[in-house]
Write a structure and sequence with these properties.
Number of domains of chain A: 1
Shape of chain A: elongated
Low-confidence stretches of chain A: 135-140, 142-153
Helix content of chain A: 40-55%
CATH topology of chain A: Arc Repressor Mutant, subunit A
Structural class of chain A: mainly alpha
Largest interface: A-B, 45 and 45 residues
Oligomer: homodimer
Chain lengths: 153, 153
DNA sequence: TAAAATAATACCAAATTGGTCTTGTTTTTC
DNA sequence: GAAAAACAAGACCAATTTGGTATTATTTTA
């Protein structure tokens, strides 16, 4: 079924939640409560997202996390990449030397191209599309979206 | 990394091998030898592919497997579906009731749409594209391709 | 300076997946 | 017509990956 990890799924939920409150700082506890996910799980997801730069982490008493970019500018592909690394469907498509039968495989570069096709499709979907419930049409990712930072708390 | 199962990867290798000999009947042993894959693994893959109708199985002494449709008519998506079931990235996109937090999830139908986007991308790639080593341009899947059945052996 | 709140790290358990073996069926030859 | 050989089909077992949890370290404010 071509699955992604559950943590990646959770990541989109968390990101969508943060996207609904642009600029505001939300602690892991708050996010866990509103998303009905377990706190440690949310913390792990937030950590990974922060490490990749998709969200900013603020330590201290009133710290938490907030989106680094507006929801319209972050693609679904970026979220998946943050959680699972480079988008590829097979090992051989990631980097040479991973597959033992690399030289005797007839469809070497083709899987790489397939992965790129999928990635391109995911690149065209934005976080704003996910966050908006039941929106009829999907927007394209815009790299020029307004930085709607209210600088919360 | 958005991975597919190894068996699915092997399935494409096996299908590509069969595609190079249209109409011919190849036993599991023969396929295993030429693909350098383990015989039981190949047998398992062939069984699954046959059950889905992508290949035909012929029992008996000189039996084996052969492609049911010409390579140009079978899409990568079809192979993935045969090995992994319906193409979806999350459980909730498969069918209602799978996810416990379905009613409280804000991005219910969106994952379904994402899966469809990916599937559409995979649908446009044919087995002939995989089989052809290093071909520069990818062909689209044609449902009207010539049934190049030589009826082998 | 101390306490409280939060992020980061490391560890453990469970589920899925990949691989192997055994059994059953068909066909051909004697 | 019977027996043997070849092949497909199904069931079982082990390993890797993934998800979840607990603990530790750091920062900030009172």
């Amino acid at each position: 079924m071509l699955r992604i990890g559950k943590l990646t799924d959770y990541a989109t939920v968390v990101m969508a939640e943060l996207a609904e409150h642009p600029g505001e700082c939300w602690s892991a506890s708050q996010v866990a409560e509103v998303t009905r996910l377990e706190l440690p799980t949310v913390a792990k997801v937030l950590k990974t997202l922060a490490k990749s730069g998709l969200i900013d982490s603020v330590r201290g008493v009133n710290g938490g996390y907030r989106l680094h970019d507006p929801a319209e500018s972050v693609s679904v592909a970026a979220i998946i990449r943050a959680m699972e690394g480079p988008i590829a469907l097979t090992e051989c498509a990631l980097e040479p030397g991973r597959c033992s039968r690399e030289h005797e495989c007839s469809l070497k570069g083709n899987w790489k191209r397939i992965g790129e096709t999928v990635e391109h499709a995911l690149e065209s979907l934005s976080l704003a599309d996910l966050a908006a419930p039941g929106n009829p049409g999907l927007h394209l990712v815009t790299r020029t979206g307004p930085r709607s930072a209210k600088r919360g708390n």
